[in-house]
Amino acid sequence: MKINFSLSNMEPILALISGILILIMPQLLNLIVAIYLIVIGALGLTSYRS
């Protein structure tokens, strides 16, 4: 079974990891949201440039 790593595959994985960490350590919410938005924004900018 070949796993294709793309932006559409990574978003749910990042969301799951973020949700679990927020449940365990709620004070990490700001840090996790900031990192998530930076990563998604950077990937979005690089994948849409032509």
From TrEMBL:
Transmembrane segments: 12-45
Keyword Transmembrane: yes
Record's protein name: DUF3096 family protein
Keywords: Membrane, Transmembrane, Transmembrane helix
InterPro entries on file: DUF3096
Lineage, uppermost ranks: Bacteria, Pseudomonadati, Pseudomonadota, Gammaproteobacteria, Methylococcales
Classification via Pfam families: DUF3096
